[in-house]
Amino acid sequence: MNSSHRLRLPVVAAAVTASLVAAGCGSGSGGSSGGAAQSVPGITKTQILIGSHQPLTGPAAPGYSEIAPAANAYFQYVNAHGGIYGRKIKYTYLDDGYDPSKTVSVVHQLVLQDNVFAIFNGLGTPTHLAVVKYLNASKVPDVFIASGCDCWDNPTTYPYSFGWQLDYVREGKILGAYIKQHFAGKKVGYFFQNDEFGQDGVKGLDMEIPHAQVVSRQSYVPTNVNVGPAVAALKASGAQVVVSFSIPAFTALLKLTAGKLGWNPSYVVSDVGSDPTTLAGLLVAFAKKAGATVSGNALTQGIITDGYLPAWGSTSNSWIALFKKVHDTYDAKAPLDGNVLYGEAVAYAFVQAMFKAGKNPTRAGLVKAIAGGLPQGPVVAPYDYSATDHGGIMGAYMGVIRSGVIVQQGPVWTTDTTPTGAVTTFTGSQPAAPASGMP
Amino acid sequence: MTLLRHLAAAVVAGAVIWAASVQLNAFRDFQMAEIAVYVVAIAGLSVLIGLSGQISLGHGAFMAVGAYTTALLMMHLNWAWWAVFPASAAVAAAGGAVVGLAAARLHGPYLAGATLLLAVALPSLANQFPGVFGGDQGLSVTVLAPASLGAAFPQTRWLAWICALAALITLVVLANLARSRVGRDWRAIRDDPVAAALAGLNVAWLRVLAFIVSAACAGLAGAMLAVTTSLVSPGSFTLSLSIALLAGAVLGGLGTLLGALWGGLVIVLVPTYVTDVATSHGLSGGVAANVPIAAYGVVLIVVMLVFPYGIQGGLRRLATRFLPTPPARIGTPGRLPSADDDKGPDSPYRRPPVGEHQEEGTS
Q: How far is CA B205 from CA A435, B105, B197, B268, B334, in A?
């Protein structure tokens, strides 16, 4: 140990001082900007500053990294059309690489240094779990978390947190109800990601599908791409329908592996892993790696899935027209896929909430506004927001992928997260998008 | 005497850190805690590689052991942080002993491969036993500042204090250890294991001991990380963490404790600083997101080209060149490389013979 040999006071003191100066110089002015005593963090006369943690790099980046720029595209549209009571939204989203320790670091930066008004659409279950307690202890609104875990719906423990997307238990129940109805008596096999996403989904499925009908339950972990044994077991069980709670890469692996085994069951896939554009790209890429050429759209043909947003394919839908316009103006380089649609829609919901919070928004005021209920907007089913429910979207429609687009089949269904709550047809209709494009 | 000097240095550094933590904003306090985490982990790794001449690509796994020990002890037994820190270090040290026993039989790339396996495999145990380790969602850890400091006391400052304290204690212990007989023995087995064995040193045991000490540091760092981030989950202990620790040790200067400080600073501050610069210059999202990674790579390349002995080695070298009294006295055991001696045939920092890859970069 060379240095220890002559470790001297001045050297250590100088080094420590230098390091702290470096730390202090890191970024400057942000820290003191929350100076005025009565001011609301992140709100000035002209601006609303919000922040987020997003996987812009790393394993979850492909696909998911499109969400924040798409949300920002809608915010830019709002800013160009008068903002929210004259204030423009500034959206700072930082990269956490889907690593929970980095999430903690960037969220501390956003809250303590940048003084954001709220954390919006923080992405990922394991990542966001790392900060949810901190945000609630600091009374920072934690709105529209980009994860379908029903763990956010806990107003007693997490009064400042709100989910948004259809949670996985509800989604499982809706897929299960469809299978019970359309595949009565058929043998069903489960293929799911072995974490909270897949397990919650299975929980929902089991609430609807009779247990005797389920012949095999196979799981995978995202770090192991060898799904061969799981798929072989599903095939051996004689399953005629495979329900898959998988991310897109593993939906593609499932489909290709089953094809290689010459097995062709019906597929029912969670919304998370069924975006036709993403899926088709992955199928072609994976097949190419294995030395085969396939047509992505041919392979996704006939996959049954669900959706809580109108599909890009429904060109007559006023929301799709609005989001296409925003996309073409502010985010034109991004593909027209489910992630981009998701980002714009959740941004719309945030703008709705901010308008509802009024001309002089406060952190508590935003929470109160959402808990008082939000109008339906771009999603196909109503929100469950109330003083006791912070979940989000309550239902979805079933659809089939045809020629690379999801085609809606039948009505919108809504349900709750309890084992006894029925899956019911939603009788209301989706309101049209306002002509201004602003809530 | 040496102990007193190290203690005095630690007290001065502690006073500086205390003063700075009070002055800086809450986020900077948080970053100080993060830096302390990396300093401890890198210092331990630096001892392993720089002194004993063994490599580990699996230190993230030892951090995971420490972090999960912390979470489990706090959850089930309600231990206080000051009891949990040494306990986590001890559990990780036990893990280090087991790995060290295997490692002492392996050399160079084989050792790197074996430890790499550890980094990949161990964190996924958490997913295999979700009942105990909480699966992908992990376990939560809460350490609050004592109520006597007042309700308005920033939590992040408290984190900075306890992490800095743990880091300073670790550095004092390591500095003394390196100065001791054990430290000299390590250098002997690093430079020439055959000669060391002929001189009566138990090479295998010394290698295992180095692994134990190094794993204990990593375990402590894991405990500190758990407390700082308030969550322990497998996603925090990826292979890239292990690689980042190694990069930090090499960047700072292998085998030097101050090098660990430089390494920690680079790992924590460069990405934040570059992100701030990139976003304030209005780079588009996709570009801005990748700039920190690119900048980190550039720093790595530049340091390796300009300062082949790491930042600390480079600073020493500059000092010998520009200061009238060079701080490195020729002939002292364990002296630092200076500009003239890295190629001399008698230099202890000469290139190792072919086949002793594990000694690459130990100078």
A: 77, 11, 11, 35, 21
